[in-house]
Amino acid sequence: MDWLPTITAGFETIDADKALKAKAAQNLVTWLTHADFAAYRPQLEKLIEQKKWSVLLDSFYQVMPFGTGGRRGAVGIGPNRMNLWTLGASVQGHCDYLKAKFPALSELHVVLAFDVRQFEDKRGVYDSSLPNPVLHLTSREFCQHAAGVYAANGVHSHILAPDSKKYVATPELSWTIRYLKAHGGLNMTASHNPPDDNGSKFYDERGAQPVPPEDQLMSEFVDRAESIKFVPFADAAKNGKVHFLDDAPHRAYIELSRKQAIIPPPRAGEIRVVFSPLHGVGGFCAGETLEAAGYKYIPVPEQNDPNGQFPNVTKTPNPEVPECLDRAERVATEQQADILLATDPDADRIGGKVNTQADGKGGYRYLTGNEICSLLAHFKLSQLSTAGDLPPSPLVITTEVSTGQQTRIARHFGAQIINDLLVGFKYHADVLHQLDTTGQFGDIKATPADFIIGTEESHGIITTPQLRDKDSAGAVLLLAELALSQKRKGETVVSYLDAINRQFGYFRNEVVNIVMTGIEGKINMTKMLDTFRTNPPKEIGGVPVASFEDLRDENGRMGPFKGETDKAARNFLIFRLAAQNGISAKVCLRPSGTEPKAKAYIETSCEPFKVGSTQAQWDATCKNVDAEIQKLATSFLTTALATVGQTPKPGEDKLSR
Asked: Where is region (Disordered) located (predicted)?
């Protein structure tokens, strides 16, 4: 059958770029007629019969972009969905890249990890009565398919055995690559995305995701991959190209994490800690670390088992979202716990709530990612300083969009700080790599041994330079130690945070998500950012913009582009506002690298508490900081949407509190 006329006519009913519609039609015809895609044909024919042209256009107008180290998105049928073909093409490109990078090596090795996900078509895209190759597809099966591609290319894979009940979390993957001296790695995970999403994250030999220009080179190899070599997983194992991980790397990782402790362990019954992996893999890293360090945690029974549908989680399995901690808070209240902690599905992020009373009889206060950053940076610096254990050139690393309070904290303890990194822990890892190889990063001179902590506002923490990705294990241990230290003084984490705010100034940080889905959303996102870039606002919420910085400016501080991936990462605008009435403010805007939205990071802050001021005056100042951030959020969202002829929906400017 000649499908092209029918498809072309169908796409004409959609208002979209003609070139994109033509590309989608070409790709769809290929998937309908090529033998390699025969298994997908019944579902595609049904979608055409049902005239689901929007779904088909979005699924076929492009090959899912290989972003800054991998692909992530909805599982489904088509080149713009996660499936065995898009994964296979990525892995084939990775194999070609590794061979070019290590031409003298006869044997190449990679470590493979996976989360708990399983595709069940929760969005109801496909016909349940027809065969569907992606239905019930798990992250484990994705990984085993990848091992088959690696094996066909002569690359050895290290992966958990098929009957293993364990999981390798994201931070443990970073560790295992380094432990085994592998040449790279792959993690099949969509982190905290909805259950029907999945993704592939590729790692280099340092246990980190590659940074420009290496990620650009890898991306080019992926784009050039035309034919995918493959052998079945069972055959790859028989042929000696697949190696099943034993427990040695895991034990070493847990021991490394346990050694990050900086205060004496708790006595029996001294502190009550509730922990939930939110149905993810956190129990195998953060949970085990807590126990190894002497913190016998209280589980949240209905969330303890790995389950890729996250059935007992409110809203989303993301500790950045307070609602997902409701069941943990119920257990904490029943047990009068001092702190409750949670990890996201791949266990690189943490979140939690702390009791407002030292006796465990109070309510619970949620900790934002930025508050966790400040708390842990201050606590670790303070403890090391008091013990006389600060290294010669202590170093704190954070990002441009994380709270500026950390800069004041670091400088108070005489620490150096790198506070202007792009978003993503691969940039933290790059700092550590440059310090390891040259002893310098920009104007900073140090060694990895000087590293204190690395933070990111999106609940990411790293506490040791021996890992090169954010790590929930070291972070939960440090946060539990802070709670224990405070309890030993008859105080709380809340009082510790209040003291930090008074000493260094109250900072309020919020993220406003500007959601733009589908092809039209992608076009509007580009238009919005380009409009701001060429015609930045002179004021936001009535406050003058004192300076504007476009990180894509090749004459600016970041210099010439290192490739297209670098250009994409630098799609980042910074508006620094004039200080008014004792309040400073900043707005950063960037498109998300993993979700169809732009993120506006807004910060307002005041100076430290002045000696002689009253509590009422301090409370009024903090209230003004809160009021100012709401005003800026509403104004900026309105201005941003106006660039594409839209207005905010009711409540769209609502902040976290």
From this structure: 188-209
